[in-house]
Design a protein that fits this description.
The structure holds two protein chains of two kinds. By secondary structure, chain A is an all-alpha fold. Chain A is built from nine helices and no strands. Helices cover about 20% and strands about 35% of the residues of chain B.
């Protein structure tokens, strides 16, 4: 029955080739450090699932943001779990991304023909940092407010255009409802769209070029 | 074909990996799926417990005349607290038993008022009338005025919330 259905689908989708290209590809003999990229992807999926769930209750306005976060954490069944997974996942995301980047760097895996994989990876790292920075403000508690006050102030240090870029980041001279709304919009729309696009390219290239072997002594 | 063919199926490395991945994947799916369902349906599953709301002193109820009581209650929906006024008519015929009736017309939800001269409740929206104890005496309402569960404790009249 399942096999029949599988064949029926295969005739129309040809998914077996795709499946084999992704999961049955040949890889060199590698070590556990090569799982860091997959681990990062796993946590990214975790962030997407828990993040989508959080948007069901979270409201990005100064008069409701904090209360809705407290409601999620203390009133909803498993709300503490969903938020906790998103909160700790965020830290795990940054740590794993950096670890993955360092593995690729020290193994020289960014060299020909994998330069573009590396470049998309570096942009992905910046996107992850962006997720962390914008997400940090959303609970709208004291820590979030002052961390973002300080964080955006750093933009202002840039020469010539700094002051103007600071105003753009905050949507005005001070942190306000405008800041919260644009950080939220960036966090749930702009960055995820960028992330999906870049992860798509990144993974395609990993499969297309194969992964590099552990470099030997003389290489 | 007809003979019993005993096949010693050895679990090879590939099949072991497949089974392990499916097993762990299933566990992860459950670990996300069940909390997600609880989280999404949570607010709908919550039972509003009917706590007692203080209406006021029974001394204010006039014998045989529906008396309007008003009180402010705090309700919480999600993370938002709102104050709303509830009002109800209280009727007693013997000073012992109290009938508490909602002042919301059972037709389309306008507020009814007691008109002593006409010996009845009147709803201005569609000229509905109700008798002293809330029975429909004229107009379109489909049922008598709703009654609220009530009790008297220490001379104070209480009604049950969410009725």
């Amino acid at each position: 029955m399942m096999a029949k259905f599988g064949n029926w689908m295969e005739d129309r989708f040809g998914w077996r080739d795709v499946w084999e290209a992704i999961f049955i590809r040949k890889i060199p003999h590698v070590n556990w450090l090569y799982t860091l990229g997959s681990a990062t992807l796993f946590v990214a999926v975790n962030q997407a699932i828990t993040g989508i769930l959080l948007t069901l209750y979270y409201v990005p306005t100064p008069d409701h943001a904090y209360d809705s976060v407290v409601y999620i954490t203390t009133q909803l069944p498993m709300g503490w779990f969903i938020r906790g997974m998103h909160h700790w996942g965020a830290s795990a995301m940054v740590i794993l991304t950096v670890a993955h980047l360092l593995r690729v760097f020290f193994y020289g895996a960014y060299k020909y023909p994998r330069e573009v994989t590396w470049m998309t990876g570096v942009i992905l790292f910046i996107v992850v940092i962006g997720f962390g920075f914008t997400g940090y403000l959303l609970p709208w508690d004291q820590r979030a407010y002052w961390a973002t006050t300080v964080g955006t102030r750093i933009i202002g240090v840039a020469p010539v255009v700094g002051e103007w870029m600071l105003r753009v980041a905050r949507g005005g001279s001070e942190l306000s409802a405008v800041t919260l709304a644009r950080f939220y919009g960036t966090h749930i729309w702009v960055l995820p769209a960028t992330l999906i696009l870049l992860v798509g390219i990144h993974l395609y290239l990993v499969i297309r070029n194969g992964i590099s072997a552990v470099p030997g002594k003389d290489e | 074909m007809g003979e019993t063919k005993k096949e010693v199926k050895k679990l090879n490395r590939s099949d072991f990996m497949k089974a392990t991945i499916a097993g762990i994947g299933g566990l992860i799916g459950v670990a996300y799926g069940l909390p997600a369902i609880a989280y999404v349906v949570g607010p709908a599953a919550r039972q509003e417990e009917g706590d007692w709301i203080q209406l006021g002193s029974v001394n204010k109820v006039e014998m045989n005349t529906p008396t309007l009581f008003k009180t402010v209650i705090e309700t919480q929906t999600g993370w938002i607290k709102t104050e709303s006024e509830i009002s109800a008519f209280v009727l007693t015929t013997n000073g012992q038993d109290y009938i508490v009736m909602s002042n919301v017309c059972t037709h389309l939800g306008c507020r009814v008022r007691w008109i002593e001269e006409q010996d009845g409740f009147f709803c201005p929206c569609h000229n509905a009338t109700f008798s002293r104890d809330g029975q429909v005496t004229g107009g379109p309402p489909p049922r008598p005025l709703d009654r609220l569960e009530s009790k008297v404790e220490g001379g104070i009249l209480y009604v049950k919330r969410g009725a």
